[in-house]
Amino acid sequence: MSTPHDEKTGGGKPLVSVRHVSKQFANGTLAVRDVNLDLGTGQFISLLGPSGCGKSTLLRMIAGLGAPSTGTIEWPTTSHDASGKPERDLGFVFQDPTLMPWANALANVMMPLILKHMPKREAEQRSAEMLELVGLKGFEKSYPRELSGGMKMRVSIARALVMRPKILLMDEPFAALDEITRHRLNDDLLELWWKTKFTAVFVTHSVFESVYLSKRIVVMAARPGRVMADLDVDAPYPRDELFRTSSDYAHLCRVVSGKLKEAIGS
């Protein structure tokens, strides 16, 4: 496990560059302090840390759902609009699936395409293909109330990816699921990422999940939230159950767990 800075972006310009970003809320809480982070194209990056360390706040600022109090978040390879704001090409998966209860799975996935005025037939075809890619072929007409928690999350991921974004931001999407379902969705998410090569930024408080999924793990400490370590996970892809039960995986988990304990104690 290594941390050289020049490997963090894959050798080219970063997709997103976070520079000296801090976030203070109106009540005076300093949620994030002086974060510097480059997100490389095609990487799978986990933001790991305890509750309250600013992971979700940082993710939302990257998404444009909140502005930094100080510092900048730049998109060096992305086009900008007339006012100079970056046209963020991203999908966002929240901790809860946030599906429309009155719409079936296909209609939920289609919504971003319809909002972009894509012809209905084309939107239906692409959405059906995405549902098949996340393992939900045959459930296109099912409503959220008819789906399990894991299936709802698959619909949410399909909706986030249907626009074929460059970056997928995920805020603890599997935290509320049972362990078996969580493992299965970890496997499926990695397969999707391996096939389509989007950049993934995944918020988690699980050492085991972060090591299994990631090329890089950014360890954050709380009060205020700040980056304490930026670790490369030296394990090849694709990963499967053999990796999850290997001595290499156990060793990597111990290393990351040690860094997390250091961050919590800092």
Question: Overview of this structure, please?
Answer:
The chain has 266 residues and is of the alpha/beta class. It has 2 domains: 16-79 and 165-265, Rossmann fold, CATH 3.40.50.300; 100-164, no CATH class. Helix content is 36%, strand content 21%. The chain contains 8 helices and 9 strands. The protein has helices at 55-63, 105-115, 120-133, 149-161, 179-196, 207-213, 241-244, 247-265, and strands at 16-24, 30-39, 44-48, 70-74, 90-93, 167-171, 199-204, 216-221, 226-232. A 6-stranded mixed beta sheet has the order 5-6-7-3-8-9, with helices on both faces. Helix 3 (120-133) packs across helix 4 (149-161) and helix 6 (207-213) crosses helix 8 (247-265). It is globular and about 50 Å long. Residues 2-6 have low confidence and may be disordered.
The number of helical elements comes to: 8
- Beta percentage is 15-25%
Helix content: 25-40%
- Give the low-confidence spans: 2-6
Global mean pLDDT: 93
CATH topology group of the largest domain: Rossmann fold
Class inferred from helices and paired strands: alpha/beta
Side-by-side strand order of the widest sheet? 5-6-7-3-8-9
Overall 3D shape: globular
Element pattern in H and E:
EEEHEEHHHEHEHEEHH
Q: Write down the domain tally.
A: 2
> Separation of termini?
21 Å
